[in-house]
Write a structure and sequence with these properties.
There is one protein chain. With about 625 residues, the chain is α+β, with helices and mostly antiparallel strands.
């Protein structure tokens, strides 16, 4: 008979004890860490959900960082835009004041303030967050706006705004200081006023003439260049009879001169003397009318025209919009007269129409969009051959999206565009296009900035591309598309926000331009017309800084970026809720319940104690005791 060793059973029991010890160790780790396991294999079947949830939490953390960074940029941009509105308010309050006292430099206190605010505005527009310029569009590493001193005064090689404004003023005033108008007396009884050059963008443009002068004949405005004449025909007008002449200024505003026949002595301002000699000589009255008209035109030219010239110089320098100007043309009516907005695009003489005109089947293509001419019943991208020039211009403006409508004046058609680089107009009927004053195709716009085209400026008749010789004020991205789209960020799985901005946006550019004009303009402190110049300029600057319906406002930009911020806020709220849910899934899959672990530890400790007791008892066995 053999007796089996008790070591076998002891080894089995020992293995159980070691297993219990390992379980106790694992449970102790779970109790101290709160986790089911320190590796994926020990997590159980739900660990796949936990892994997916942790990936989503990682994405949310990345979105949170993005939202934080974008909020920093938006808050800085909003602070900058708020500063711009304060600058606008400050300058507008000054320009609207009636104080016109000039210092030794020929400027008012309000103008000095504007000059300082211009520098502040340039500084605001060059705001950075880190190395990123906020108002440069996609060109985030490029300074948004040139230095204020360079913009106004130029550099050693490039002209600044002050030079552009001086050139434009000389061109608008003309050598005789009468706004490029030529005044003559063709006969002793008549007076004639004419624009000095057809199609010139400079100076005063004759818009209309009306008269109640007894016995007088008024002719025009008509011809090329446009002119009008007044002939008293050897008859004295009656006391109180009036001649009214309306002019269009370069900035599009109109001014009217009213001259009243008077027997009063001395002759009141704005009147002309009726000859009272014996015998009466109406030719003397004509001479008096000529003198009064000359005085009134000279005053208008040296006050309102000078102010309008400064405003337009600002547009020439700062505005990226431009225009294509056709040569002056006449219609085929009998007698012929300059074309107008009402002139038809075709028609048989003596109708008021261009010749040659468009016929059915002709096309005109604007920036890639083709308009087709039909005999009648035009729809969609069609025009009737009997439509007016103004109808055609309106369709062109719809295609180009210009903020400044195209015009017809003095037989010259001006097509305006906000994007000079993209303008291109062609036609299958080049003869009809030539009848509109455009003798070469494609019709293109002169690239801004615009400078007076020849020297001396006082006799120039064209504006030319001045980019090669002029400071470029805006240095950032100026490509097509919304400025907001120049900075985009993904803030959620299916949510992106746009928060870009450009210093050349219309609202910002108009404000910068108006403040530059007001702060740069200066005149003679003791000049005869200095007060009138500053007064007329102040009025225009105040209007320019007043928000007009349909114009972009700085507040509109703030609203856009506020919407982006609200979108991020909503996304952040959703993500906070999602984080809690995802963490709950992960905790359920990976976390160990302290109560359950403690209970399991207690049970194992009891089992271990029992195992130890059995082991101890077995260890005390001997052959004698066994037998």
């Amino acid at each position: 008979m053999s007796i089996s060793s008790i070591n076998y059973s002891s080894s089995v029991l020992g293995s159980q004890i070691r297993n219990i010890n390992q379980q106790l160790t694992d449970l102790s780790t779970q109790l101290s860490t709160g986790k089911l396991s320190q590796n994926y294999s020990g997590m159980g079947t739900n660990e796949g959900f936990a892994i997916a949830g942790r990936a989503q939490l990682s994405n949310i953390a990345a979105y949170t960082d993005t939202i934080t960074n974008v909020n920093v940029s938006i808050n800085l941009a909003n602070t900058a835009l708020q500063s711009l509105t304060k600058i606008r308010s400050t300058v507008q309050t000054g320009s609207a004041s009636t104080a016109q006292d000039l210092n030794v430099n020929g400027q008012t206190v309000a103008q000095n303030t504007a000059a300082a605010q211009f520098g502040s505005m340039v500084g605001v527009l060059n705001t950075q967050t880190g190395s990123r310029y906020l108002f440069s569009g996609t060109a985030v590493n490029t300074q948004s706006v040139a230095d204020a001193g360079d913009i106004i005064n130029g550099t050693t090689t490039l002209a600044g705004f002050k030079t552009v404004m001086a050139e434009r003023q000389a061109a608008d005033l003309g050598a005789n200081g009468m706004g490029r108008l030529v005044q003559t007396q063709p006969t002793p009884s008549s007076v004639q006023v004419a624009e000095d050059a057809a199609g010139s963008p400079f100076g005063l443009k004759i818009k209309s003439v009306s008269s109640t002068l007894t016995g007088a004949t008024v002719t025009g405005p008509s011809g090329s260049p446009v002119s009008f004449s007044v002939d008293l025909n050897g008859v004295n007008p009656n006391n109180g009879d009036k001649l009214s002449v309306q002019f269009t200024l370069p900035d599009g505003t109109t001014e009217q001169i009213d001259l009243t026949a008077s027997t009063a002595t001395p002759t009141p301002l704005g009147n002309f003397a009726i000859d009272a000699s014996v015998p009466v000589n109406p030719n003397n009255t004509a001479a008096n009318l000529n003198t009064a008209l000359n005085t009134a035109i000279t005053k208008l030219a040296n006050t309102s025209l000078v102010a309008a010239s400064a405003v337009v110089a600002g547009d020439n320098f700062f505005n990226s919009a431009s225009s294509a100007i056709g040569a002056p043309v006449n219609n085929q009516a009998t007698p012929p007269a300059p074309v107008s907005g009402a002139t038809a695009l075709s028609g048989a003489s003596p109708s008021d129409s261009i010749s040659p005109g468009f016929v059915a089947g002709d096309t005109i293509t604007v920036n890639g969009t083709t308009l087709t001419f039909v005999a009648s019943g035009a729809t969609g991208n069609q025009l009737n051959v009997t439509d007016s020039i103004q109808t055609l211009l309106s369709r062109i403006d719809q295609i180009t999206g210009t903020s400044k409508p195209s015009t017809v004046h003095g037989g010259s058609i001006t097509i305006n565009t906000d994007d000079a680089a993209s303008l291109g107009i062609t036609s299958s009927n080049t003869g009809a296009l030539s009848s509109l004053g455009f003798n070469s195709t494609p019709v293109t716009a002169t690239q801004p900035p615009l400078r007076v085209g020849s020297s001396p400026a006082s006799s120039a008749t064209t504006l030319v591309n001045g980019s090669a010789s002029t400071v470029k004020w805006y240095l950032g991205n100026d490509g097509p598309g919304s400025p907001r789209s120049t900075a985009m960020a993904r803030v959620d799985d299916a949510v992106t926000v746009q928060y870009g901005a450009q210093a050349n946006e219309d609202a910002i550019r108009r404000q910068l331009q108006a403040i530059a004009v007001f702060g740069t303009f200066s005149t003679s402190p003791t000049g005869q017309y200095s007060g009138g110049q500053v007064s007329a300029l102040s009025l225009r600057v105040t209007q320019a800084l007043t928000q007009q319906p349909g114009q972009q406002r700085i507040e509109d930009i703030q609203t856009d970026i506020a919407m982006a911020q609200n979108t991020m806020k909503d996304a952040s709220t959703r993500q906070t809720q999602a984080k809690a849910q995802l963490q709950s899934i992960i905790d359920q899959a990976e976390s160990a319940s302290p109560d359950q672990v403690a209970s399991e530890i207690l049970a194992l400790q009891n089992a271990l104690q029992a195992s130890y007791q059995v082991t101890s008892n077995l260890a005390q066995l001997s052959l004698v005791k066994f037998l």
